[in-house]
Design brief:
Chain lengths: 222, 222
DNA sequence: AAATGAATTTAGCCTATGCTAAACATTTAG
DNA sequence: CTAAATGTTTAGCATAGGCTAAATTCATTT
């Protein structure tokens, strides 16, 4: 069994390695920041993770998950996303609160528990923020969403996923009707991915900033 | 926040101090056994718990929880019992499986989570095995049940609580219809609390041994 | 009262995980 | 192309828990 700390590092590294900004190779500093520990502590743990064949460590370069490390990470992510969805659907948690609670619980649940909530949810394929849920076998659907910030005036799109990084941002989105499934149309956009004006579903017109537009992933409608 | 280890010790000590066999003063060895650690490790932790004002340690004598220690223990017990009941009622866990899963989860849940399952269950006052659930304020209902083993031939009784110590025993009870609320009548009993013959609710006659009879707590019916 | 045996504590060690300060490597700027 | 800035690792230390072996205390029995 992987310790909680190891699981937490693994999940963080997996997420960083999938972020479009970073790329597969993840730096020590980034990991340390994300985990809220010193760089020295991160190096320390990285060496242990390399020892366990979870990742490869090129000193001074960064870290890359092994296939087996990715597989382990996907199990953790599956637990997390199923829990988030369960908290939302079965216990009425708000969009922005599920991540923190799932972080606490994810280390504690058994396979049996996972199977039961999976069934109670009807074997869902996407999580509370639209992220794909890895299968029990460790497969995860590839998504091909555009960032809202990349669209241009006149385009229409449907919200498919949102970043769960910032609870405050999630509250903002919720209050402005920018939830999964909402259809939007770009009414006007400043050059260089600046702020944009949107027509949002039934709820009317919104102005959003770049940060918000980058946290929203959409299917572009023809 | 108390560490998991501290919480586990505290819960174990609380339970031991409530067991009729032991009495308020609990010995190091008993704690070590229950926790599955060496006596030296138990001593070690006991000193830390005393440091934290959770209990008083009379060296070579034993240990007694302070009022504040009891209060903390009751919070932990509340979490545990609410979780057990939730697992049973909401997720369909078997009687004998809830304890182990609740042990895993109880360290991980927030107050918010507790409140939500409390509400989802309709603010229950007894747990999955009939134990009283402490209130949020740290009060616990005193119960005054008899052990089935203490009854004599001819008496009738209603099952109110069962010991959750042994999952196998719980399976046995379940299979034989000896569940909460069942009415029984002692048909015949060997002297000195030996095995007994019972008429059990609608499901007919049972023979049970002493160990089983001691794990069942009942209200005696006039 | 002394001796034996059981229970308890102490001493000393181990691992996981964190930290700071110092050393080392890489990148960037002058 | 060297020097400063930045990023990374090493060294040494801390804390929480666990362990074994040895020492100590208590209880019991002669």
């Amino acid at each position: 069994m992987l310790s909680e700390a190891v699981q937490d590092y693994l999940k963080a590294i997996y997420k960083l390695s999938r972020a479009p900004e970073t790329g597969r190779m993840v730096s020590t500093t980034l990991i340390a920041e994300r985990m809220g520990v010193s760089a020295a502590s991160a190096t320390n743990m990285i060496k242990r993770l390399a020892e366990m064949n979870i990742l490869e460590h090129r000193p001074y370069q960064g870290v890359e998950l092994t296939p087996s490390g990715i597989h382990m990470a996907l199990e953790i992510v599956r637990h997390h996303r199923l829990l988030e969805l369960y908290l939302r659907q079965a216990l009425g948690y708000d969009w922005d609160a599920v991540d923190a609670e799932a972080d606490r619980l994810e280390h504690a649940i058994s396979e049996d528990f996972e199977d039961r909530i999976d069934e109670a949810l009807g074997f869902p394929t996407v999580g509370a923020h639209g992220e794909p849920i890895p299968t029990k076998e460790g497969n995860i659907a590839e998504t091909d969403y555009a960032r809202l910030s990349e669209l241009t005036a006149g385009q229409r799109a449907c919200i498919r996923q949102v970043s769960d990084r910032d609870p405050e941002l999630l509250r903002y989105l919720d209050q402005h009707g920018l939830v999964l499934g909402t259809e939007i149309r770009i009414a006007e956009k400043a050059p260089f991915s600046g702020p944009m004006r949107l027509d949002v579903g039934a709820s009317g017109e919104q102005h959003i900033g770049l940060e918000v537009a980058e946290a929203i992933y959409v299917d572009v409608l023809e």
